[in-house]
Specification:
The complex is a heterodimer of chains A (221) and B (631). Chain A contains ten helices and seven strands. With 221 residues, chain A is of the alpha/beta class. In chain A, the strands form two sheets. A five-stranded parallel β-sheet of chain A has the order 2-1-3-6-7, with helices on both faces. In chain A, strands 4-5 form a two-stranded antiparallel sheet. In chain B, the strands form four sheets. In chain B, strands 2-1-4-10-7-8 form a six-stranded antiparallel β-sheet, with no helix packed on it. In chain B, helix 8 runs parallel beside helix 10, helix 13 runs antiparallel to helix 14 and helix 15 packs parallel to helix 16. The chains are: A alpha/beta (221), B alpha+beta (631).
């Protein structure tokens, strides 16, 4: 973990080029007692300097003037121990999967409310990953895989019963804490489950791509 | 083959074997092998005696000392050389056509004397270079002139130069006309049949040789050739009257070719099977190469009588061994293999059973029951039919070849069509996916960011009406571009340019700018693909909007000019010439540059106090055609 003094709170770095979005995040962080702004830049080039500050968490926009935020993620990973959340306008599958496979811990929708973004950040800092109700519905639908794809995926990409339970709670709009309470487990455990689910989504998407490739004859097993 | 069919092999194989064996033992053997009952009475000879003879002539025979022989079924061993057999027959009257005599003596050559007179014989009987006229059995005709009523003497001069056994079996003597009529089939099999079989199998050997030279399955072809050739050679042994080999040499020929035949069956069985194992053949050949010289050595170096016996033992045991090995190999070939040549296997098993029987009876009773000799050609013929039908396409007629080729062509065409359809579908799917991804990206890039920004600003109360209006305007511009991309604007650059001008000119003028449009290409625009066209459209739109928003100028000039290879489009303003800020919406220049690269062209910017010019250089059509659109 990065050097952090708990009394000072977590330090957040932001890489985002739209001023309105920046203001939005700055406001959220300022009003959160336990979150501080480590630095904010609007390009990847400038963001490199932020790594040296060793923040606890990075919020990274995808569409930056000098490149894709996703390509910057590996640099963050090698440069410091910060968690990484991708911020995006749309939470479509391609975006989410590419964020996860690029190495992000999770993603946030830019227009989410203050409370949701703050909780997402905290949950990530504690080792979990944020998950919205819409995402939970989507994941439930997506990861109950038909057998065909199952065969192709090398790793297991089906949900465990616990994970399904959890997703169903999230799909109803429960927060991390609520879901943890309902299931009688700690929020940390919830976080691990969510991360595992996201991993499966990435695997599943890989598997689906392979399956499609086989179906259309590109790949011959 | 389905699993159930595979598992059914033992049943099917056993069924085929039973059927083939039944056909043989119940139908073929009675016809081919069992001697038909003779309806006439064979005359019984009396006063049988035999002797060693000094010279092969009647005088020597008369001078010889005869020893009585009790009954037929006798034999003399163990020396080569000249011998004589003599007996008497009683005739009530001389038949009009004379007598038929089937001597039934195992000897190399003979001469027949009736009442002292030479009646029949096959020529030279003088050792060492004798003719082998008596290995092939036949009925000799004794002319009535040589006979008289009452007691007649029949004497045989015999010679053997290799095999040391003289076997005296019961002769068949009868009225010639009756005898030939009754024994027709028996004599056929003893005589003409042998030649016919020899010719047929010899031809098969020849064809097998031709196929061998042209075939792919060299192993099977070779051993089938060996099979047919050794059988032909062995048959030749019985009918080759003027053979050049004598004594031990001619016995060696017999033994070695017989062993070779047994070997060939086994090696053929291995090479015929679906999964030849090859090493059993090597082992078998090694065995042959050990045994053959051993047999030959026995024949040459052991004493007369013992030599033949020893060699015979080796041959019989080896034949039994090879026969059993062949059966095992064939049955083994069915285990776990996709083998469905049940009938061929059954035929081979039948034949090998006969070989076995043959060898066993040789060992135990010293009687050749003739199973193998007569049935082997049919079995080889059966195998030949199967072999050639599988291997030979040489003899198909023109029409059949054409039909074959047409069938193959149809197959290939169908396969190609299938592959083509799959390919088309794939390409369509890929184009689809690419389009979808492009639209998604466009929405993210443009619409998403614009709307998001406005939303967040509005939420915090920072949205001034004119900013919102601008924002919404650019959102609509974006949406128009998106719709254009799915519409016909992408069809050609000239269509895109026309639309662009129509859209942009009013806005420019409304914003208070003067608008100039120069197109000096004379309509000769390169033919870009839709993706390229849209990228170009976007670049132009963005450049103009930037000029409108940031230049603080009063005139915008757009020109489309032909270049050495391709065209150059420029958007020039007369403002302060400074670059638009990199932050904020649009990501300006960087974005435009990457779009230009995607379209296969290059973007350059010229700045001066008198204004900013954005120049887009685009290549000729073929160079840039597929450059656009990579994700």
């Amino acid at each position: 973990m990065s050097e952090v003094s708990t009394s000072a709170g977590y330090r957040i770095a932001i890489v985002e080029d739209d001023p309105n979005v920046c203001d939005h995040f700055i406001e959220i962080i300022s009003s959160a007692v336990d979150l501080n702004l480590a630095g904010i830049t609007s390009s990847i080039a400038a963001a490199r300097g932020l790594i040296a500050l060793r923040p606890d968490l990075f919020l990274v926009d995808i569409g930056l003037p000098d490149g894709s935020g996703l390509d910057f993620i590996p640099e963050i990973r090698t440069g410091c121990d910060a968690r990484i959340l991708v911020v995006t306008s749309f939470g479509d599958r391609d975006t989410v999967v590419s964020a996860l496979t690029a190495g992000a811990d999770g993603y946030l929708l830019k227009d989410s409310s203050q409370a949701v973004i703050a909780e997402g950040i905290r949950v990530t800092l504690e080792g979990g990953a944020p998950i919205s109700a819409a995402a939970a519905v989507y994941l439930l639908d997506r990861l109950r895989t038909p057998p065909a794809v199952e065969v192709v995926a090398e790793e297991d990409s089906g949900l465990t019963p616990r994970e399904v339970e959890l997703l169903e709670l999230f799909a109803k709009g429960q927060s991390y804490k609520d879901a943890a309470r309902v299931l009688g487990i700690s929020p940390l455990t919830v976080g691990n489950h969510v991360k595992s689910i996201y991993r499966k989504l990435a695997v599943h998407s890989r598997g689906e791509a392979v399956y499609e490739a086989i179906k259309t004859g590109q790949l011959n097993i | 083959m389905s699993a159930s069919r595979l598992e059914a092999w033992p049943g099917r194989l056993i069924a085929a074997v039973i059927v083939v064996q039944a056909i043989f033992w119940l139908a073929i053997k009675p016809v081919l092998i069992d001697k038909p009952p003779t309806d006439f009475e064979s005359i019984t000879p009396v006063a049988i005696s035999e002797a060693a003879v000094e010279r092969p002539d009647y005088a020597a025979l008369e001078a010889a000392r005869f020893e009585p022989v009790e009954d037929f079924g006798a034999w003399h061993c163990c020396e080569t050389g000249y011998r004589a057999l003599r007996y008497h027959i009683e005739l009530d009257e001389v038949p009009e056509q004379g007598l038929g005599l089937y001597p039934n003596i195992n000897t190399d050559n003979l001469a027949i004397y009736v009442n002292g007179r030479f009646v029949a014989g096959e020529g030279d009987m003088t050792l060492p270079t004798i003719r082998y006229g008596a290995l092939l059995r036949k009925i000799y005709h004794i002319q009535p002139a040589n006979l008289h009523a009452g007691r007649n003497e029949i004497a045989f001069l015999l010679v053997r130069d290799g095999v040391p056994y003289f076997d005296y079996n019961r002769p068949i003597i009868g009225e010639y006309g009756q005898m030939t009529a009754q024994m027709r089939s028996a004599m056929f099999f003893a005589g003409e049949y042998k030649f016919m079989a020899l010719a047929v199998i010899g031809l098969i050997a020849l064809f097998a040789l031709i196929v061998l030279l042209r075939s792919e399955r060299k192993g099977e072809s070779f051993w089938f050739f060996m099979l047919a050739a050794s059988w032909t050679a062995l048959s030749l042994y019985y009918v080759w009257i003027d053979r050049p080999m004598h004594g031990a040499a001619h016995m060696s020929f017999y033994f070695c070719v017989s062993l070779l035949l047994s070997l060939s069956w086994f090696c053929w069985a291995d090479s015929w099977s679906a999964k030849p194992m090859v090493w059993p053949r090597r082992v078998a050949i090694a065995v042959f190469l050990m045994l053959a010289p051993t047999m030959v050595a026995s024949l040459y170096f052991l004493s007369s009588g013992e030599n033949f016996d020893r060699a015979g033992e080796i041959l019989d045991y080896a034949s039994i061994g090879f026969a059993i090995a062949t059966i095992i190999r064939i049955v083994h070939g069915f285990i776990g293999s996709r083998e469905d040549r049940y009938w061929e296997a059954a035929i081979v098993i039948l034949l090998v059973t006969l070989l076995l029987l043959n060898a066993v009876t040789e060992l135990t009773q010293s009687i050749n029951m003739g199973y193998v000799g007569r049935s082997q050609p049919f079995l080889i013929l059966g195998l030949a039919i199967a072999f050639f039908s599988r291997n030979v396409r040489l003899f198909r007629s023109q029409g059949q070849i054409t039909a074959l080729l047409e069938a193959q062509l149809d197959e290939r065409t169908a396969e190609l069509q299938l592959a083509h359809a799959r390919q088309r579908k794939l390409v369509r799917q890929q184009a689809f996916d690419e389009e979808r991804r492009r639209i998604m990206r466009d929405m993210h890039d443009g619409l998403g960011s614009n709307l998001m920004s406005m939303l967040l600003a509005a939420r915090r109360g920072k949205a001034e009406p004119h900013t919102v209006a601008e924002g919404l305007q650019s959102v609509i511009d974006e949406m128009r571009l998106l719709i254009d991309s799915m519409d016909s604007v992408g069809e050609s650059l000239s269509a895109a340019l026309a639309t662009f001008r129509a859209r942009v000119e009013p806005r420019v003028r409304e914003a208070g700018f003067a608008f100039d449009w120069m197109d000096e290409t004379g309509g000769m625009l390169p033919a870009y693909g839709p993706r390229q066209v849209l990228q170009i459209f976007r670049i132009l739109q963005e450049a103009v909007i930037n000029a409108l928003k940031h230049s603080e100028g009063s005139r915008i000039t757009i020109s489309v000019l032909p270049a050495a290879d391709g065209i150059i489009i420029t958007i020039a303003d007369d403002g302060h010439g400074r670059l638009p800020a990199e932050t904020g919406r649009g990501r300006g220049l960087g974005n435009m540059r990457s779009r230009a690269a995607q379209a296969g062209g290059t973007l350059s910017v010229r700045q001066s106090d008198t204004g900013l010019t954005v120049e887009l250089a685009l290549p000729g059509a073929h160079a840039g055609d597929e450059a656009g659109g990579h994700e």
